[in-house]
Amino acid sequence: MARSMISFFFALSIAIAAQQPASFSAASIKPAAIAIGREGGNRSRIQHTPTSLTMSNVTLADSVQWAYGLAPFQLPGARPGAESYDILAKTDAPVPVAQLKAMLQDLLAKRFKLAIHRETKMLPVYELVVTKGGTKLPKANAAGGPVHTADSLPRVESGAFVFANASMAEFAEMFGKLQGIDLPVVDRTGIAGSFDIVLKGAPAAAREADTAALFAIVQEQLGLKLVSAKAPFEIVIVDHAERPSEN
């Protein structure tokens, strides 16, 4: 009986997967409205709903990272100053975010002629962990909402960095991009949810590339710390890519 039930649910999962669309029903790729090098040109934004994906001012590297669930350090060889794009894609019916990512993989393969392979390497990183005294994070934001928005960099407001509606993984990724942070930052806090995180004094420390000051700010204001580590990570190598074909 148990074996027949397992077989039933396995067959059901295959049937559900087969029903999910492999491609977007409509997609456009255009040169970004804000070009790299102009004010705001280094900031990208990704928004998704169950029926749409909107990527603003993204490079091919940004797109590959989101499609394959990669941190920036897992995609070596990304070119600074590469062309940036605005991508809008839609589905005919609601799909989970994992399927949106799979459909973006298909879009990149078709429109950019993207070809990749995977390797595993030991990499030095900073791990973001909770201090012995516990976290000082603000209250988590309410879950839900039809639109999820993720920025690539924090905002600067009143001498502070603001990481809006960021999960711990998103916070770690953005923090790792700040001047003065010389290794990738990986979330090891185990904390779920998203937060509006404010780091007072961090922009000044980043301008001076003051790593010690940035680490101290995180520990004092958030109850989190960064520790050096080495860990095996899957990385993705881009074997081939072209400029996108026309819409």
Structure write-up:
This protein is an alpha+beta fold and 247 residues long. It has 2 domains: 20-120 and 234-240, no CATH class; 122-232, no CATH class. The chain has 6 helices and 11 strands. The protein has a 5-stranded antiparallel sheet, covered by helices on one side. A 3-stranded mixed sheet has the order 9-5-11. α2 (60-68) packs across α3 (97-111). 24% of the residues are buried.
Fold blueprint:
Elements lengths: L1 H18 L6 E6 L13 E5 L2 E7 L1 H9 L16 E6 L6 H15 L3 E16 L17 E4 L3 E3 L2 E8 H8 L9 E3 L6 E7 L1 H6 L3 H12 L1 E17 L7
Parallel strand pairs: 5-9
Antiparallel strand pairs: 1-4, 2-3, 2-6, 3-4, 5-11, 7-8, 8-10
Helix pairs in contact: 2-3
Keywords for this entry:
247 residues; alpha+beta; 2 domains; five-stranded antiparallel β-sheet; globular
What's the structural domain tally? 2
Which segments are poorly predicted (pLDDT under 50) over 5 or more consecutive residues?
Answer: 12-18
Q: How would a crystallographer describe the biggest sheet?
A: 5 strands, antiparallel
Radius of gyration: 20 Å
Element order: H for helix, E for strand: HEEEHEHEEEEHEEHHE
Portion in helices: 25-40%
Summarize the structure.
With 247 residues, this protein is α+β, with helices and mostly antiparallel strands. It has helices spanning 2-19, 60-68, 97-111, 168-175, 202-207, 211-222; strands spanning 26-31, 45-49, 52-58, 85-90, 115-130, 148-151, 155-157, 160-167, 185-187, 194-200, 224-240.
